[in-house]
Structure formats: structure tokens, C-alpha cells
Design a protein that fits this description.
With about 170 residues, the protein is an alpha/beta fold. The protein has helices at about 5-20, 35-45, 95-105, 165-170; strands spanning about 25-35, 50-60, 70-75, 85-95, 115-120, 135-140, 145, 160-165. It is built from 4 helices and 8 strands. The strands form 2 sheets. The protein has a 6-stranded mixed β-sheet with strand order 3-2-1-4-5-6. The structure holds inosinic acid and magnesium ion (MG).
Length: about 170
């Protein structure tokens, strides 16, 4: 779907936009792991601003290719973001439950501002309505892997983003 040069070209654009928007500010980036790992690493190196990085780890899949809608935080401590300009980075916006839960949780620590940035956004009816401020690519409602995105923990190390073959989606877990 997107090879490495195409991803990097798009990251140049988003990074330039973010760098303009936060020129006079100090960003606190909150990365939603594990899926956003490659995206965050490549994007942040293109943003020449002072910033802090915090990571969150959440899961909602529980081994399936469909979200369960129940978002579990893997750590107890919420990143310190009081009075800060927060930018949440996630790999992909699907049902909206993950980004919704992360945003809601961060709002409880009273940041000055919160924006969201996703590499991919699926064109579909969402379980939860979410406004995104920066989107890398809009895609159809298909299950994609690579460049950090996984299926049952695999394929994250592919340098490109591709659609997972349907027969793999249906195969029992092992
Ligand atoms: P949501 O809560 O349904 O919006 O899903 C968001 C999370 O589910 C993302 O952070 C991904 O980790 C995962 N996800 C959603 N769609 C895909 C996909 O097509 N491939 C791989 N992971 C996905
Ligand atoms: Mg994820």
C-alpha cells in the first residue's frame, strides 16, 4: 500500500506542519505503543523543536483482528502533562476507542492543549467519534500490517505498509 519512500515523504510534510504549529511551544509527545514505534521514531527526528517524549502502552485486541472496544492500559502511571501542549501519536485510527480512551485519560491531568496525530486513518463508521489534527494517509477499511503495525504481534518489522492476506486473518492463532 505504501512503501518506505512514500511513508517518509509524507512524514516530511506532517513534521513540517507540526513544527510550524508548535514553533513557540514545547511539545510533550505521547506515543501509543507498540504500533506507533517506527512512526514516532521517524517523525520526531524530523521535528527540530524542543520536546519531551512519553510512552503509553494500551491494548484492545486481545488476539483478534477486531477491537473488543475495551481498552486496557498496560501501565499504572499516567504521563505528567499538567499545563503542557500534548500531541498524541498513534499508528492507526480504526474504531476510535483507543484514541478516545487515551485522550480522555490524558485530559484528567489537565494539559494546556491536546492534539492527535495518526499515521493512518480508516474511512469507516467509527464506534467512537474522534477528531484528528494530523493524518498521514486515509485508507479503506482493510487490515494492514508493517511499519510498526502487527497482526497477533507479527509483521511490525516490515519497512512498508501492506494489506494482510484474508486467509491469514482467518487462520487460527498459533
Ligand atoms: P481502534 O481503537 O479500533 O481505533 O484501534 C486502534 C488500534 O488498533 C491501533 O492503535 C492499532 O494498534 C490497532 N489496529 C487497528 N486497525 C489495525 C490494522 O489494520 N492493522 C493493525 N493494527 C490495527
Ligand atoms: Mg496500537
Amino acid at each position: 500500500m505504501f512503501d518506505e519512500p512514500a511513508i517518509h515523504r509524507r512524514l516530511d510534510d506532517i513534521a513540517a506542519q507540526i513544527s510550524r504549529d508548535y514553533r513557540e511551544k514545547e511539545l510533550t509527545v505521547i506515543a501509543v505503543l507498540h504500533g506507533s514505534l517506527m512512526f514516532v521514531a521517524d517523525l520526531l527526528r524530523r521535528i527540530p523543536l524542543p520536546l519531551k517524549l512519553e510512552c503509553l502502552s494500551v491494548t484492545s485486541y486481545h488476539g483478534r483482528a477486531q477491537t473488543s472496544g475495551e481498552v486496557t492500559f498496560r501501565q499504572i502511571a499516567i504521563p505528567d502533562a499538567v499545563g503542557r501542549d500534548v500531541l498524541i501519536l498513534d499508528d492507526i485510527l480504526d474504531s476510535g476507542f483507543t484514541l478516545g480512551a487515551v485522550r480522555e485519560t490524558l485530559e484528567t491531568v489537565k494539559p494546556r492543549s491536546i492534539r492527535t496525530c495518526v499515521l493512518l486513518s480508516k474511512r469507516k463508521q467509527r464506534g467512537r467519534q474522534i477528531d484528528t489534527d494530523y493524518v498521514g494517509f486515509e485508507i479503506e477499511d482493510e487490515f494492514v500490517v508493517g511499519y510498526g503495525l502487527d497482526f497477533r504481534g507479527r509483521y511490525r518489522n516490515l519497512p512498508y505498509i501492506g494489506v494482510l492476506r484474508k486467509e491469514l486473518l482467518e487462520r487460527p492463532d498459533k
